[in-house]
């Protein structure tokens, strides 16, 4: 009995595994410290083994050089490619976290940030609430299917063992990131506008009745009104988040097109 070992296929699989491992390390929920690194790499290896045969057939003869310098350069390219895809997919979640931080600051929760042992950092409780809602919508609406398409499209735009314009992709990602602040402020706008009106009303009351301690009276009112407004505006949050998920495929296409 004899076995044939396709070295080219193994090299392509390894390159894709590195690319998808970086992507898995940045995906929502999978980036938490509670998720073992072996699970992430196993998931990346499964996707790489699935796509590698189709990708290897698109490579020309002699395209894969197994010398150590070429393999090292390809490993670096795979890291960059995975980071570009992962950061683009995370734009929506960065947006909702930013919106939660803005809303939490307006409500008065800026000083009650909690320590998250999963990410080893300080997080806003409203931002984390928005983030978990966005993750729930991401999986329940089937938006995670865009991830599988992005993996395949990245293999076409940035095939293994071939050069690509990483700087162009990074600049396009930076342009896409510029929309995070605009979208985040739109999501937090209902809470911010209502609390601005409440603060204005409290200012008028203090002018007419100076004996009222605005700090003692104003904080509970702002927290109550802010939480009620945030609950009512969750319908708007859902529509805005689904709209960003719908445009995620176009964002990925623009970033991948900029790498060619």
Question: How are the elements arranged and paired?
Answer:
Blueprint lengths: L6 H20 L10 H22 L9 H22 L1 H17 L6 E3 L4 E3 L1 H16 L4 H13 L8 H12 L1 H30 L5 H19 L1 H13 L1 H11 L2
Antiparallel strand pairs: 1-2
Helix pairs in contact: 1-2, 1-3, 3-7, 3-11, 4-5, 4-8, 6-11, 7-11, 8-9
How would you portray this structure in words?
The chain has about 260 residues and is mainly alpha-helical. It has one domain. It has helices at about 5-25, 35-60, 70-90, 90-105, 125-140, 145-155, 165-175, 180-210, 215-230, 235-245, 250-260; strands at about 115, 120-125.
Q: Report mean pLDDT, rounded to a whole number.
A: 78
What's the total helix number?
Answer: 11
Q: Residue share in helices?
A: over 70%
Q: Give the ordered list of helices and strands.
A: HHHHEEHHHHHHH
Largest sheet: 2 strands, antiparallel
- How far apart are the first and last residues' alpha carbons, in Å? 44 Å
Taken together, the total number of domains comes to 1
What ranges have pLDDT less than 50 throughout 5 or more consecutive residues? none
**Content-based structural category:** mainly alpha
Strand order of the largest sheet: 1-2
Radius of gyration: 24 Å
The 3D shape can be described as elongated
In short:
The chain is mainly α and 260 residues long. It has one domain. Helices cover 75% and strands 2% of the residues.
